[in-house]
């Protein structure tokens, strides 16, 4: 009976989504406002039914209702409450249901945000969203079927994959990832609405850019949370391995970042309309590709689900959406003519375009490296892999150029300028670039691309800080405002979008520095220790003090207690452990990390032998890793500032506006 209620809610959501899509496009075709009203109500109906279906599944997991097939698959009486809740997205069928739940929230909020000012783009956007909702509701009702009925109800279940129970980040990372992935549906629908109606009005453009900011912010945090999860759980000491499923989350972030920047130029200058819509559409299609890569079973990854019939269904939807989008772009993009010619030469317009092209090149490079082995296997029946050397060799130069353009772009004026003005704007930031370079050399860094990246980071940091504070300095010069009052006006006043962009840029610069230094300047050592023995790495002395045990409802743990000293000063103990789950024969290690602003001390137990009293340790000193997590918070704050300042449709663009008047053209 309980499974039937869940199935009924899913079928109701499918009915609302499909009926609402028909009503929306009929309203657009016949220009009937009453049909638009029906489509709006159907969108709310889908959202309510799908959201309730998710709540019903969570209730089943919490009460151990093993008559529901998905609960029998991933539930267990012994699980802690938080693990029971996150089991909703721990396996294939539940993850699709959770996707539908997140989509329900997005569609409800986005539908409410559309007003009559959007004109006939309103039913076009709602119809596009509901077509996507129809597909996912069908996927849940058909191939996935999380609400199947179990005839012989078991007394207990196996619980989710032990790797997904091994850290609390499992409760945080997937919701952020889905918030980014699923959220791309909203700007995708708005982009299709612009193509269907043949017009990208200022109101619709403002809504498009605002709708990109929420999924972009979620995806920014999700990508790094995935790295943090790998760093804290998998025990190999790194946070990014160019795993295919990691790449799948990075791809839409790259095109989404390019789309946000392109939309700024479209808002300000009325150019690159078709390019902006193409980037938005590509971001959505790449999320569907990432979903296929995760759920098809074709990639061997710790992040991927097992093979199922869901993969081919998603691939069919991806192909259909791609063909429809390309046809619409081909038919309608000529109607989205630019309002002005794009400035040529050394100008901020050119820098925006260059940065966009670099992001697209980065995306293409990662995409080729990720899918090329599959193409080779399909055509030649030969298995091959593209590893880290390819990705590092190809993407590091592109990433460094993106960082450099991120500094040069804001330093350039809008429109043409004299050679003297260019020198005045572009030469001073080199001072901080050389200071960063000198500090890196003093620290002992000799890797060429790391040194280049740090020089560019110093250059961009100067420009970011200078441009962020320039309006406040100008007000202080011509008024009696104090610095804090002037800065508060930028953070909370009309210039918030401008400040938000520079906050996000500051986070990006910090991330580039952390990645460049941590990936090339760390030290590591593997060694077996008997109880009482010590090892040394750098300024750290580590002593194996003994073995401890811990019992939890879902696992037992054997813990190696490692005393830590730095330069002879006692820092306490770290406790890497090996965890044993009832459903898994092999133990799963959990490293322990002493995090600092300058460096992390990372300890991973490769094995703990209680009979011989020995432990095999992997010890790493990872510099500046914590700044990657800090940088993510800064970028997220920038995204939220931009989102909240853009909430009112049609608000004037402040994110890139100089205090000087526009040049006369």
List keywords for this structure.
665 residues, alpha+beta, 3 domains, six-stranded antiparallel beta sheet, 20 helices, 10 strands, 11% strand, globular, disordered C terminus
SSE blueprint and pairings:
Elements: H1 2-30, H2 33-62, H3 69-74, H4 81-86, H5 92-113, H6 121-144, H7 173-183, H8 185-197, H9 202-233, H10 244-269, H11 273-295, H12 310-332, H13 348-380, H14 388-411, H15 419-426, H16 430-443, H17 448-478, H18 483-492, H19 496-520, E1 523-530, E2 534-537, E3 540-552, E4 555-566, E5 569-574, E6 577-580, E7 588-590, E8 592-594, E9 599-609, E10 614-623, H20 625-645
Antiparallel strand pairs: 1-10, 2-3, 3-4, 4-5, 4-6, 6-7, 8-9, 9-10
Descriptive notes:
With 665 residues, this protein is an alpha+beta fold. The protein folds into three domains: 1-160; 182-415, no CATH class; 523-625. Helix content is 62%, strand content 11%. Helix 2 (33-62) packs antiparallel against helix 5, helix 6 runs antiparallel to helix 12 (310-332) and helix 17 crosses helix 18. The longest helix is centred in the middle third of the chain and has 33 residues, at 348-380. The chain is globular and about 80 Å long. It starts with a helix and ends in a 20-residue tail after the last helix. Mean pLDDT is 88; it is low at 301-306 and 648-665.
